[in-house]
Write a structure and sequence with these properties.
Layout lengths: L7 H16 L4 H8 L3 H9 L6 H11 L25 H10 L2 H11 L4 H15 L20 H7 L9
Helix pairs in contact: 1-3, 2-3
């Protein structure tokens, strides 16, 4: 028997718990210990597999030092059509998903520590250049006839030039 898919709001609340915990640099184990739970139970809450009851949510609010509303910000609509102007635009969904990922959070933390605006702009330009035209995650195509290696000294040997035997 296949498992039931988590409720969208439960999954959202769980993802917000994970986001806040990660922003604080707190492990699942530490959060669990402070609540008298195992890290596996925290994982289930964060994935939305298990619902977070009111008393548990109250504990989490105190430990993570955020208002209850934090967990419901930008929560998905469940019943009825979305009210025009209130629903989150689809174009912003991927941003929230990215910022809720480990890579997104780490990138964001590191980026905001860069104080030089020129360096920040250069990083944005670099990321744009790296992502331009690349929608797949495959290896870039190599030029025919040239063997590419990862290490510098091997490159010279692979091309037939060995500095040890130079005249």
């Amino acid at each position: 028997m296949a498992g039931k898919k988590p409720n969208a709001v439960d999954a959202h609340v769980g993802s917000r718990v994970r986001l806040r915990r990660m922003l604080l640099g707190m492990s699942q184990e530490r959060l669990g210990d402070s609540m008298g739970l195992t890290f596996q139970q925290i994982q289930k809450y964060e994935k939305g597999v298990n619902r977070i009851g009111a008393s548990r949510l109250f504990q989490i609010v105190k430990i993570l030092d955020v208002p209850v509303q934090f967990f419901f910000e930008e929560a998905p609509q469940i019943d009825g059509p979305a009210v025009k102007g209130v629903a989150e635009p689809e174009s912003e969904t991927f941003i929230l998903e990215f910022l809720n990922s480990r890579e997104g959070l780490e990138l964001n933390r590191a980026f905001v520590k860069i104080s030089d605006p020129k360096v920040r702009k250069s990083i944005v330009d670099l990321v744009r250049a790296l992502s331009a035209g690349r929608t797949d995650h495959s290896e870039p195509k190599r030029k025919a006839g040239k063997r590419q290696t990862k290490k510098g000294p091997c490159r010279a040997v692979a091309s037939g030039i060995d500095s040890r035997n130079a005249d």
